[in-house]
Amino acid sequence: MLSVDEIVAPVEVEMAEFELRFRQSMKSKVPLLDKITHYIIRRKGKQMRPLFIFLSAKMLGKISDQTYDAASLVELLHTATLVHDDVVDDANERRGFFSLNALWKNKVAVLVGDYMLSKVLLLSIEKNNVSLLEIIARAVREMSEGELLQIEKARRLDITEEVYFDVIRKKTASLIATCCESAAVSVDRTDVSEDMRKFGELVGLAFQIKDDIFDYGAPGKIGKPTGLDIRERKMTLPLIYALNNSSKEVRKELINIVKNHNEDTKKIRRAVQLVIDHGGIKYAHKRMTELAGEALEILKPMDDSQAKRSLIGLVEYTINREK
Predict the structure, then answer these.
(1) Could you tell me if residue 296 is inside a domain?
(2) What is the pLDDT of residues 79-122, one digit of tens each?
(3) With contact defined as beta carbons under 8 Å apart, do 307 and 196 qualify?
(4) What are phi and psi of 127, to 5 degrees?
(5) How many CA atoms lie within 13 A of 15 on its CB side?
(6) Is 250 domain-assigned?
(7) Residues 215 and 124 grouped into a single domain
(8) Confidence of residue 72 (pLDDT cuts 50, 70, 90)
């Protein structure tokens, strides 16, 4: 498997240039906004989404100004959704840093998220990127639908595997699909834009299932506390599988813990163990591997290049990462 440095290597120069352009796009004449956007940039994560864009674009053609615009649009949208998510979830931390709402309260955080969404619109209009705006707008709609569908189903705990995939397809996979589709459009490869969209969607589904699996891993080796999804009454794939493939008694116990004892650490540990014992993790890992395999099949007809090899490496990293 390729290392992160090896994955980034074919687009290292472009990623550095993107960082400069993105900082520029975030600038404002309002001092408070400038202070907050500087804080956001300083705590940014692995930059996986821009990486998907630049590697996809380089595999398909020559990176253009429109490719940089696509990366900025996606990153603005992604950042806006994270800021809004922290408000919705009343979260005080994000990637080990204080969230915006923890530092500047909900009102400021919501307005900053709105500002970033306005920048998406303005950047698209200024550069006449109507085709990119259409792809981004579709992602906004799907992500919102996915969040609302998840909230609706979490209240009743009646989510099926089919509904689960519908939720994560909209909520998580749509943004990675947007990365890969917009990359193709940015290098005038509309002939494969739908294939690239499907590739991104499949990778996004696998990415989310990997996150689900983390919730049942050993503390200290994962990016979030064990059992957090159960505490938040999120119906993830391992839990859904366990509920559908266990006895009536086990199903009843699991539902009771999720509904009524999701603050009890001992009960949460019991639920985690029940999910593991009834094959939830094994099944989720199998589905994740299948989806990643389907994604890689889509890349097979593409011309071989260093960018393609890195894109394959990025898919492998997605399903093998440890946090």
Answers:
(1) yes
(2) 877 776 666 666 666 655 666 666 676 777 788 778 778 888 88
(3) no
(4) -95, 5
(5) 18
(6) yes
(7) no
(8) confident
Closest CA to 168 of 146, 151, 153, 199: 146
Domain of residue 294, residue span: 193-301
Domain shared by 142 and 182, yes or no: yes
> 223 pLDDT exceeds 70?
no
CA 266 to each of CA 64, 256, 272: distance values in angstroms, whole numbers, following the listed order:
54, 14, 10
Report percent pLDDT > 90 for the chain. 44
Q: CB–CB of 52/180 below 8 Å?
A: yes
CB 231 within 8 A of CB 263: yes
CA separation for the pair 113, 80 (Å, rounded): 4
Give the pLDDT of residue 80: 77
* 211 in the same domain as 133: no
Q: Does any domain span residue 316?
A: no
SS3 263: coil
* d(C-alpha 81, C-alpha 46), whole Å: 16
CA distances from 188 to 63, 192, 193, 317 (A): 10, 10, 9, 28
184 and 198 both lie in a single domain: no
Q: Do 292 and 206 form a contact (C-beta atoms < 8 A)?
A: yes
pLDDT interval class at 306 (50, 70, 90): very high
Q: What total of structural domains would you count in the chain?
A: 2
**178 and 218: one domain?**
no
More confident residue, 113 or 238: 238
**Does residue 295 share a domain with residue 242?**
yes
For residues 156 and 160, give the distance between their C-alpha atoms in angstroms, rounded to a whole number. Answer: 11
What is the CB neighbour count within 10 angstroms for residue 298? 18
**In sequence order, what are the residues at sequence separation of 6 or more whose Cβ sits closer than 8 angstroms to the Cβ of residue 83?**
40, 99, 100, 101, 109, 110, 112, 113, 116
In whole angstroms, give the CA distance from residue 250 to residue 278: 9
The token pair at 36 is 């907050």
71 lies in some domain: yes
**Does residue 163 share a domain with residue 215?**
no
